[in-house]
Design a protein that fits this description.
The structure holds 2 protein chains of 2 kinds.
Chain A: H1 2-33, H2 40-57, H3 60-86, H4 91-113, H5 131-135, H6 142-164, H7 166-176, H8 178-183, H9 188-211, H10 220-235, H11 240-259, H12 264-270, H13 282-285, H14 289-292, H15 296-307
Chain B: H1 13-32, H2 36-62, H3 70-88, H4 99-118, H5 123-143, H6 145-148, E1 154-155, H7 175-197, H8 200-210, H9 212-217, H10 222-248, E2 250-251, H11 258-271, H12 278-296, H13 300-314, H14 318-331, H15 335-368, E3 375-378, E4 381-384, H16 389-429
Classes of the chains: A mainly alpha, B mainly alpha.
């Protein structure tokens, strides 16, 4: 029982970290440019498909590097030739531009790779459970461990770049005072392009490591995209730390939910109430937690909106 | 001294003419297009017009970008189809022709509940929250097969109810009667929604859209205004859902799918959210894309998406703004100068479009129609996808067309900008 719980927790944390990889890029782009990049999850999907294709040609490890680089280039091009042109018309056309882009990307992926899922597999080196956890009686795939390591390594490097390098300081300054930074002689549009490209590369990296842990299919952008938005709203718009907490919370919530067969009926039975199938709320109460699991993140969103509309660590109330 | 507001309100003749012609058009269309396919298409257009206009009450009038409007559409459809089954079973004495009222009431009821949550935030968070609520509704609809019908959906029979006005032939069996019902509801909803834009609520919604801070300063609760607008908009979305239930006699959980919420956004924005008639235009174009184009190609959504992105990039006011800007040029009698650049622009834009279509269709054929062999027919010409010939041709058409198009686009833009400057100058020098 104890081991199963720990294993569930590890699954939850690894999923939460993946969500945070996506939420981090999205938050960075949002707080810097004020643009909610609707196509972010589509870049995640592209990362997975590119990695699948490249791993057929070159193997997994070169793909791990090459796919994010490709996504960086695509992101930078999208910013330079798309977003920058739409920018003068305000935030809603910007958002709609990325929305239309996500539409096109899903369709293009279907044109190129077909409508069914592709066989993007975990590399042989990382197949199988983690040995030292196995000895403790916990079954946990090596690849999930690798995924967590990539996520943590990526976060550490973002933090180092943002706080310890010159370009990172310029980015931080451009977050709050773009005009001032421009007046000091920095090329702010180019910084925007770098940030957008960088955010897309992070989404691509998440796709490379997430695509084979889950399923690589055209619907993956839609399912993850909505959850990542929930992460950002629950964490508080623009707050990286908030997004981190919310991502882990949702990762744990979904994984524990999936594994539980607890129902409202059992709760009532424990309280000594027996219900017949024709009672008013019977269809709701008979649902198991594993059936409700897909809705849990959204229920959390609803609760947060009632209790704390600005999000866990949000500061701006708009 | 008592201040009295004196207002002169002449009979708005033009407005009566426009609405009268619209009603006439709705009545005459089935006489002109009697084929089954045309009737189906027009029925769906009528429903989409209601849905897109209700969406524009949020985006265009109150500045709320929603990604979950299908929630109210779907709930209206489900309540209507259950009501239809109750009518058939004799448990509910309600005419089929008034089912949209039940759908609308259901939509508005859930608008009260979900709207309270979603309108707590405005702007970008509102967009994200509505997306979340939409996904939640879609996932939940698969969880309760009793009400939402699970994978198969819920079916009903629209002819089972008592006939309209007691005349046995008017039982909504033939498609033309369904079209008539949709046309009447569509016209009624259009007039009501237009009237709503003229009310104080409609006006203050515009203020909340343009400057929420100032609206708060003059004493309005912006959250309350957004909520009210969302409830009203949900009513019309539910109405559209109920009409869809009558039209198709089957409702499934795909009614809540994100694609439907995205579709109405595409329709409203393509038509243009800045004008009342914009979404009507958009709904007609969108339905045409979705119903007519999907008969010819499987890649229609790709074309639709590309068209949408091009509009966002080059004409964020949508088709209606393009139309009005050209009308303005015509009004100032300067359109003759644009004629040649327009001809060049339109002709050269067809070439790269043709090239892209060729490339997309060829790629689509090799990924999705592998079972049919390497040869596909495009525009009536057989093309062998296993040889490089068609690919080289498509790439050549695309590239050469692109170069010609970019050249003509610059010439057109120069001429267009020049004319716009002249018009602006004239307006500034001759203030009315």
């Amino acid at each position: 029982m104890y081991d199963a719980t720990l294993s569930q927790a590890l699954y939850g944390v690894s999923y939460g970290l993946l969500l945070f990889m996506l939420a981090a890029g999205l938050t960075l782009i949002f707080s810097m440019m004020g643009v909610l990049n609707f196509a972010h999850a589509s870049f995640y999907m592209l990362g997975a498909y590119f990695a699948y294709q490249l791993s057929l040609w070159l193997g997994f490890w070169p793909a791990l590097v090459a796919a994010p680089v490709l996504l960086f280039i695509i992101g930078a091009l999208v910013e330079r030739w798309g977003l920058r042109r739409v920018h003068k018309w305000g935030h809603v056309p910007e958002l709609l531009f990325t929305f239309g882009l996500s539409y096109i990307i899903v369709e293009l992926v279907q044109v190129i790779w077909g409508r069914a899922a592709v066989a993007y597999r975990v590399p042989d080196e990382l197949d199988g459970p983690v040995a030292w956890l196995q000895q403790m009686g916990i079954t946990f795939p090596q690849y999930r461990m690798f995924m967590m390591a990539v996520a943590i390594g990526m976060l550490a490097s973002i933090w180092l770049v943002l706080t310890r390098t010159r370009i990172g300081l310029v980015i931080q300054a451009a977050l709050t005072h773009p005009q001032q930074v421009e007046a000091l002689g920095h090329n702010v549009p180019q910084v925007f392009m770098l940030v957008f490209g960088g955010g897309s590369a992070l989404a691509g990296l998440a796709g490379v490591v997430g695509g084979n842990a889950f399923v690589t299919e055209p619907a993956m952008a839609g399912t993850v995209g909505a959850i990542v938005f929930v992460v950002i709203v629950v964490g508080g718009m623009g707050s990286l730390v908030g997004a981190f907490i919310a991502a882990l919370l949702i990762g744990l919530l979904e994984n524990f939910g999936k594994a539980s067969d607890f129902t409202g009926l059992k709760l009532l039975q424990a309280l000594g109430v027996e219900l017949t199938p024709d009672a008013a709320l019977y269809p709701v109460l008979k649902l198991t937690m594993s059936q409700v699991a897909p809705v849990l993140p959204y229920l959390l969103l609803v609760v947060i909106l009632i209790v704390r509309p600005k999000g866990l660590l949000g500061t701006r109330e708009d | 001294m008592e201040l009295r507001e004196i207002r002169f309100r002449p009979l708005n003749f033009g407005r009566w003419v426009v609405w009268g012609l619209t009603a006439l058009l709705f009545a005459l269309l089935p006489l002109a297009f009697q084929k089954g396919f045309a009737l189906t298409l027009m029925s769906q257009m009528g429903i989409m017009i209601i849905f897109a206009l209700s969406y524009n009450m949020l985006l265009g009038q109150s500045g709320m970008l929603s990604f979950g409007h299908a929630v109210y559409f779907g709930l209206g459809a489900f309540f209507a189809i259950h009501a239809m089954n109750w009518i058939a079973a004799g448990r509910l004495g309600w005419p089929v022709s008034l089912l949209p009222l039940i759908g609308g009431a259901a939509g508005a009821f859930f608008g009260v509940i979900f709207g309270y949550l979603t309108t707590r935030r405005a702007g970008t968070p509102f967009a994200m929250i509505t997306l979340g609520i939409g996904e939640m509704m879609y996932a939940a609809s698969l969880m309760f097969p009793g009400f939402f019908g699970g994978e198969g959906g819920i079916t009903a029979n629209r002819t089972a109810g008592p006939p309209l006005l007691g005349i046995p032939a008017l039982n909504f069996g033939p498609q033309v009667q369904v079209y008539a019902l949709i046309a009447v509801w569509c016209f009624g909803c259009m007039v009501t929604m237009f009237a709503l834009t003229q009310t104080p609520l409609g006006r203050i919604a515009n203020a909340v859209r343009d400057n929420p801070e100032r609206a708060e300063f003059i004493g309005y609760n912006t959250q309350r205004v957004r909520w009210l607008m969302l409830i009203l908009s949900s009513f019309f979305a539910g109405t559209a859902g109920a009409l869809t239930a009558i039209n198709f006699e089957i409702v499934g959980s795909e009614f809540f799918h994100a694609a439907r919420s995205g579709g109405v956004l595409l329709a409203a924005f393509m038509g243009g959210v800045g004008f009342f008639f914009g979404p009507i235009l958009g709904a007609v174009v969108f339905t045409f894309f979705a119903v007519a184009l999907s008969e010819f190609t499987k890649a229609w959504q790709l074309y639709l998406g590309a068209f949408f992105v091009l509009l966002v990039m080059f004409a964020p006011g949508g088709l209606s703004s393009l139309l009005l800007m050209n009308l303005r040029v015509m009004k100032f009698r300067k359109f003759r100068r644009l004629r040649d650049p327009y001809i060049g622009l339109i002709l050269t834009s067809q070439v790269p479009a043709l090239g892209s279509v060729l490339l997309i269709e060829l790629t689509y054929h090799i990924t999705l129609d592998t079972g049919q062999g390497p040869v596909t027919r495009l525009f009536g010409i057989p093309m062998d996808t296993s040889t490089p010939g068609p690919w080289v041709l498509a790439a050549f058409v695309l590239l050469s067309g692109m170069i010609a198009f970019l050249y003509y686009r610059r010439r057109f833009a120069e001429c267009w900008d020049e004319i716009q400057v002249e018009i602006e100058d004239w307006i500034r020098d001759n203030p009315t």
